[in-house]
Design a protein that fits this description.
The protein has 457 residues and is α/β, with parallel strands linked by helices. It is built from 16 helices and 14 strands. Strands 2-8-7-6-5 form a five-stranded mixed β-sheet, sandwiched between helices. It has a three-stranded antiparallel β-sheet with strand order 9-12-11. A two-stranded parallel ribbon has the order 1-10. The termini are far apart. The relative contact order is 0.16. The structure holds ligand F0G. The site of ligand F0G has 15 residues, from helix 4 and helix 5. Keywords: Lyase, Pyridoxal phosphate. Pfam families: Beta_elim_lyase (PF01212). InterPro entries: ArAA_b-elim_lyase/Thr_aldolase (IPR001597), Beta-eliminating_lyase (IPR011166), PyrdxlP-dep_Trfase (IPR015424), PyrdxlP-dep_Trfase_major (IPR015421), PyrdxlP-dep_Trfase_small (IPR015422). Its cofactor is pyridoxal 5'-phosphate.
């Protein structure tokens, strides 16, 4: 048998530079110990996010040249609309400038003060948009998701009992929809099974609640269904994805992930009334309904990107690179979320740095140590991100305190993965010396992690 190799070769490269430990120490201090404040030139390998950081293909770059920049009725919109209809089965399309703009518009139509939006670990901007409207997101993810050693193959699944409890507790009018995030970013890039989507649909139908998808990584989710779910192995990614979408009435999309573009988003849906009202909000917030904040060329590249992202060969290469990194870390004995997620490896900082109290933000502490060690930028998925309770203003301590190593699509090689793994092992080897975390010196009222200022504790 021959070894595995990528189904592409590289046509253009971008230089990245290593720095010294002294430089990094100073830069981190200047950044108030918040990695979002670093300049990209101060970063060697950037694992902050897989969002908008991937490499486009030659086909996408050539599609840019055919983009139609007409204000209304752009041919690039039609290309995107046809592609989205074919992949999702949804009739209406509203482009937006990115995923959270799609959330803003859809939730402007559907979410009111006091409403309840159940789902599987809502992403932070999603939750932000719900709470901004004085509504509540209720996490109904299965308990298996919060045990990093549990090898359950679909740790993004919704717990039907928890969901039914929500449906029984609140009147139907207070629950505009159930939101299924595929894959579930906040629980570790974990997939939702087709069987679970069907069951959630069946339960929600009984209570008259519609389903929407937060679909940022829907293709990666379909790949896991094909790989892990009995009876799905012979279907194409496109067939599986379309079946998943058939159980909902609409979706929000951050095209910066499985759209394989650097900026963009959209809403796709079947409900004409929701579409009509959402169109008004699109015009106010984003732009006319045939571009919604996107350039024509970007819509053209997105149409191609959506097709590429739903090809098995691409997904196999993408997800096996993430697995490659995760397996290296497991070999080194580093505690990570298992099974390894689709877009990222998540390191358990409570196990990694048991000396750091939760009040001193162990995941942020670990992320900063990884940066100091090797110039690798990661992101905290822990207490800083979980933010304060909107009622009590107390810190919310999530079940897990994670550092996410998000892998940009088609961007780094496995040599980079080897470098990252050894860098983290080096931090692991000196973990006993890391005794102190950080205190907050300034924070914003909402989504504080982006701009928070910290000092060493
Ligand atoms: N939904 C999910 C599941 C996401 O992961 C994101 C973004 C969004 C919605 C919002 O989309 O960024 O285009 O406005 N996630 C990025 C991340 C930022 O790093 O995980 P956006």
């Amino acid at each position: 048998k021959l070894p595995y190799a990528e189904p592409y070769r590289i046509k253009m490269v971008e230089e990245i530079r290593q720095s010294t430990p002294e430089e990094r120490e100073q830069w981190l201090k200047d950044a108030n110990y918040n990695l979002f404040n670093l300049k990209s030139s101060q970063v060697y390998i950037d694992l902050l996010t897989d969002s908008g950081t991937g490499a486009m293909s030659d086909q996408q770059w050539s599609a840019l040249m055919t983009g139609d920049e007409s204000y209304a009725g752009s041919k690039s919109f039609d290309e995107l609309h046809t592609t989205v209809q074919r992949l999702t089965g949804y009739k209406y399309l509203l482009p937006t400038h990115q995923g959270r703009a799609a959330e803003n518009i859809l939730f402007s139509v559907l979410v009111k003060e006091g409403d309840i939006v159940p789902g599987n670990s809502h992403f932070d901007t999603t939750k932000g948009h719900i709470e901004f409207r004085k509504a509540h997101a209720i996490d109904c993810t299965i308990d298996e998701a919060f045990d990093i050693e549990n090898l359950y193959p679909f740790k993004g699944n919704i717990d039907l009992e928890k969901l039914e409890e929500v449906y029984k507790t609140y009147p139907k009018e207070k629950i505009p929809f159930c939101l299924i995030t595929i894959t579930c970013n906040s629980s570790g890039g974990q997939p939702v099974s087709l069987e679970n989507v069907r069951a959630v649909k069946e339960l929600s139908d009984r209570y008259g609640i519609p389903i929407y998808f937060d679909s940022a990584r829907f293709a990666e989710n379909a790949y896991f269904i094909k790989q892990r779910e009995a009876g799905q192995e012979n279907r194409t990614i496109k067939e599986i994805a379309k079946e998943v979408f058939s159980y909902g009435i609409g979706m929000t999309m951050s095209s910066k992930k499985d759209g394989l573009v650097n900026i963009g988003g959209f809403i796709a849906l079947n409900d004409e009334n929701v579409f009509n009202t959402a169109s008004n909000f699109t015009i106010i917030y984003e732009g006319f309904i045939t571009y919604g904040g996107m350039a024509g060329r970007d819509m053209a590249a997105l149409a191609v990107g959506l097709n590429e992202a739903t090809e098995f060969e691409y997904l196999e290469s993408r997800i096996s690179q993430v697995e490659y990194l995760g397996n290296k870390l497991i070999e080194f004995g580093i505690p990570i979320q298992k099974p390894i997620g689709g877009h990222a490896v998540f390191v358990d900082s409570l196990k990694f740095l048991p000396n750091i109290p939760r009040e001193e933000y162990p995941a942020q502490t670990l992320a900063n140590e990884i940066y100091k060690e090797a110039g690798i930028r990661t992101v905290e998925i822990g207490t800083l991100l979980a933010d304060r309770d909107p009622g009590t203003r107390e810190n919310r301590y999530p079940k897990l305190e994670l550092v996410r190593l998000a892998i940009p699509r088609r961007t780094y090689t496995n040599n980079h993965m080897d470098y990252i793994a050894v860098a983290i092992k080096n931090v692991y080897d000196r973990r006993e010396e890391i005794q102190k975390g950080y205190n907050i010196t300034w924070e914003s009222d909402i989504l504080r992690h982006f701009t928070v200022k910290l000092e060493e504790a």
